[in-house]
């Protein structure tokens, strides 16, 4: 079983949703980023999404755009992002870590080389925003051979006819984008999300994490009732920027307290 | 050259060889697939084509003339130079050819809101124009730097009822405007049609923009046969994303005797790193939905392009150009800001035509090439746009004494 599979099984046993925290590697610098990364599991993060900064993040809102820019200005690159993962793994062997980002930095690194180095560093899965299932051949087969899971995205525009295509080769979890838009902007309609998850579960048993626009514990709590995991990103990045690592870890703890299921 | 079929449709992945594709977020996948289906249906329908033809004739003013540039020909003393006069189209550039086509498509698909990115503002003006004509809401994303250097076009778009959204991220140029337009599209998926202005972006955009622009080459073909009784020997066009070049070249691709030259912007010079020549100075990568040649660093971060011409100031190029480059079918060269400016002034005074700075890059290559060619060599250059919009840039430079 992969770290992700183990983690979702543990959460299900504890009757709670997994808290998935997104941070941008190297924001605002390598050392701060490492400190935050190392503190997240104890603060209550079940799964970590580590963003690979890219100059042109077209699916992200202003907060993550700015974080990527800060990271790049601080000298972050793909090599250093993998170095962050290695350093994290020196202390933590159980928390699943997903690298999330855009295809071009991986393409430039060389797909095969990147997958080899990512697997060696201790990465569990990749989520490449602009690599839809139609282009699975770019990385999918190599990643699966290396033991990396490929996280798929489903959105409100993914209709019933398209869903099987998205679910084919989906592993680790399915990232359900709660509403049409960019990260960190707008809010989810919980009823619509619950309905969409029902449709997906009819076709697949892969755990589903819901993200986009989840900022506070009171927004996360109702999603935790219906989803296998809840993703928070922009709000954590803002907390980090405003109050440093302590503030980001404080928010993580508040969000973690919203994960248990009521029933 | 052995005869090969270069006039191809993209494959099932939306690719020309390894270039192109549909590298977009999942939210946009259903939309680009829907667009592809709608376009394939439309282009097979005689009624759609007839309506497109009617608008091209009556609204755009097509066919555009093929003009013998007699004084320029005499000056260079070599090839016989012809201008394909796309700058005489309604709105002053080739961009309208594509916008009419996409507006008819948007209307067919029931989309009421149009978004577009623009660099020089010519695509923005053409988009605002067709939106006014078809009664569609129009939002144009434009880099803050470009808004400043192309302020006349900004005023024109506003007159036509478009909302201009300034983009300050990145360098505030075309690439950043496209990022912002994509973010709008992903947010407004239900009612919005993204009118891309060049032969780039996710499939089917490179194909459909090419098809709407190919009227340039089809007309030039027929006009040259009527005038000279044979095919041209060479074609020259400037390339940012590459839509006017693709429009002129594509109908001629399978005539091996016709040479083609695409002219990229070398800015201050390719060796200075301040340029916009993706093929001559870039490497393959994935941006804005397609794999193509890009200006990027060793980490895959997109580099800032530089060109005096806002319309060429883009770090990528259409994927079909990238493929034709690797096939060796089209020759790609680059000319500097200064060479383009020299050609600009020369065209104004020699032919009485004020060309766009984009177009002036093609004219600079003509200046380099024409004198070396025999007098019976027939050369067609795409006069893609007029230069009125560039007056602030040109006047600024003249005041600085350049």
Automatic annotation (TrEMBL), chain A:
<comment type="function">
    <text>The alpha subunit is responsible for the aldol cleavage of indoleglycerol phosphate to indole and glyceraldehyde 3-phosphate.</text>
</comment>
<dbReference type="GO" id="GO:0005829">
    <property type="term" value="C:cytosol"/>
</dbReference>
<feature type="active site" description="Proton acceptor">
    <location>
        <position position="49"/>
    </location>
</feature>
<dbReference type="InterPro" id="IPR011060">
    <property type="entry name" value="RibuloseP-bd_barrel"/>
</dbReference>
<protein>
    <recommendedName>
        <fullName>Tryptophan synthase alpha chain</fullName>
        <ecNumber>4.2.1.20</ecNumber>
    </recommendedName>
</protein>
<keyword id="KW-0456">Lyase</keyword>
<dbReference type="InterPro" id="IPR013785">
    <property type="entry name" value="Aldolase_TIM"/>
</dbReference>
<keyword id="KW-0028">Amino-acid biosynthesis</keyword>
<comment type="pathway">
    <text>Amino-acid biosynthesis; L-tryptophan biosynthesis; L-tryptophan from chorismate: step 5/5.</text>
</comment>
<dbReference type="Pfam" id="PF00290">
    <property type="entry name" value="Trp_syntA"/>
</dbReference>
<keyword id="KW-0822">Tryptophan biosynthesis</keyword>
<keyword id="KW-0057">Aromatic amino acid biosynthesis</keyword>
<dbReference type="GO" id="GO:0004834">
    <property type="term" value="F:tryptophan synthase activity"/>
</dbReference>
<feature type="active site" description="Proton acceptor">
    <location>
        <position position="60"/>
    </location>
</feature>
<comment type="similarity">
    <text>Belongs to the TrpA family.</text>
</comment>
<comment type="subunit">
    <text>Tetramer of two alpha and two beta chains.</text>
</comment>
<dbReference type="InterPro" id="IPR002028">
    <property type="entry name" value="Trp_synthase_suA"/>
</dbReference>
TrEMBL record, chain B:
<dbReference type="GO" id="GO:0005737">
    <property type="term" value="C:cytoplasm"/>
</dbReference>
<protein>
    <recommendedName>
        <fullName>Tryptophan synthase beta chain</fullName>
        <ecNumber>4.2.1.20</ecNumber>
    </recommendedName>
</protein>
<comment type="function">
    <text>The beta subunit is responsible for the synthesis of L-tryptophan from indole and L-serine.</text>
</comment>
<comment type="pathway">
    <text>Amino-acid biosynthesis; L-tryptophan biosynthesis; L-tryptophan from chorismate: step 5/5.</text>
</comment>
<keyword id="KW-0057">Aromatic amino acid biosynthesis</keyword>
<dbReference type="GO" id="GO:0004834">
    <property type="term" value="F:tryptophan synthase activity"/>
</dbReference>
<dbReference type="InterPro" id="IPR006654">
    <property type="entry name" value="Trp_synth_beta"/>
</dbReference>
<keyword id="KW-0822">Tryptophan biosynthesis</keyword>
<dbReference type="Pfam" id="PF00291">
    <property type="entry name" value="PALP"/>
</dbReference>
<keyword id="KW-0028">Amino-acid biosynthesis</keyword>
<dbReference type="InterPro" id="IPR023026">
    <property type="entry name" value="Trp_synth_beta/beta-like"/>
</dbReference>
<keyword id="KW-0663">Pyridoxal phosphate</keyword>
<dbReference type="InterPro" id="IPR036052">
    <property type="entry name" value="TrpB-like_PALP_sf"/>
</dbReference>
<comment type="similarity">
    <text>Belongs to the TrpB family.</text>
</comment>
<comment type="subunit">
    <text>Tetramer of two alpha and two beta chains.</text>
</comment>
<keyword id="KW-0456">Lyase</keyword>
<dbReference type="InterPro" id="IPR006653">
    <property type="entry name" value="Trp_synth_b_CS"/>
</dbReference>
<dbReference type="InterPro" id="IPR001926">
    <property type="entry name" value="TrpB-like_PALP"/>
</dbReference>
<feature type="domain" description="Tryptophan synthase beta chain-like PALP">
    <location>
        <begin position="61"/>
        <end position="385"/>
    </location>
</feature>
<feature type="modified residue" description="N6-(pyridoxal phosphate)lysine">
    <location>
        <position position="95"/>
    </location>
</feature>
